[in-house]
Design a protein that fits this description.
With 235 residues, the chain is mainly α. It contains 7 helices and 2 strands.
Length: 235
């Protein structure tokens, strides 16, 4: 039987240099962990500093663009004249596009709620508890579930004539097939990146891709009567 490890108490701030030491952090020392790799960093101050820096840079960029470009506002609303089509603000056009195909309860309540709940709950599933790649474990079984879900989604969209939502679904499905046939040690950096993406990543990617496409279609390709029009023609 090997001798038990001896844990010696001491004062130090470098956990890599003394990994078995019980360190008492005093006012004159720092709790910072000095590492070369940054797979994990402390919430304070590293992550907090990066978040504050990102917020400040975004605020500066928004102020800069607001000085260069005017907001895309139309004229004063006329209660005696309703424009055709009556479009929502651009950030709601994706939802308005869905309302063109589905009942209000489905497009406005059910679909967004299910997506938000899924993004909140999925990180706590056993398949994603360590944020591993979706297809790195139990690949054959997960591929079967993926093909069934992708086929069901495509049948659902085509059945309701939601053809504008089909291309994003196909593109994300093809990317997931590439990820399923990639390994973390693949020669291609892009394939290594795809292989490590968890399920929540793919759902969020599909959601954002669909939102961008639906917003673009509602902005430039919908004319009078919500009919399909060409954006380069004046109606």
């Amino acid at each position: 039987m090997s001798d038990p490890k001896e844990f010696v108490a001491g004062i130090d701030s470098d956990q890599r240099r003394s990994p078995v030491r019980v360190a008492f952090v005093t006012r004159r020392t720092s709790a910072q962990v000095k590492v070369n790799r940054e797979d994990q960093v402390q919430t304070y101050p590293e992550v907090l500093f990066r978040a504050v820096l990102a917020i400040e840079l975004l605020a500066i960029a928004l102020v800069f663009f607001s000085l260069l470009f005017n907001a895309p506002l139309e004229g004063i609303a006329d209660p005696t004249h309703t424009p055709n089509p009556a479009k929502a603000p651009w950030y709601f056009l994706g939802l308005q596009e869905l309302l063109h195909y589905f009942p209000p309860v489905v497009a406005g309540v059910l679909v967004p709620s299910l997506l938000i709940i899924a993004l909140i709950v999925i990180p706590y599933f056993n398949i994603n508890i360590e944020a591993n790649g979706l297809f790195l474990k139990d690949r054959a079984n997960r591929l079967r579930w993926f093909y069934a879900a992708a086929a069901g989604m495509l049948i659902f969209l085509i059945g309701f004539d939601v053809y504008v939502a089909v291309p994003p679904t196909v593109v994300v499905a093809l990317a997931m097939i590439v990820a399923a046939n990639s390994r973390p040690d693949s020669p291609s950096k892009f394939r290594r990146y795809l292989a490590k993406r968890p399920l929540a990543y793919w759902i969020m990617t599909w959601f954002l891709f669909e939102l961008i496409v639906l917003t673009a279609v509602g902005t430039w390709f919908r004319g009078p009567g919500w009919a399909w029009v060409s954006p380069w023609r004046n109606y």
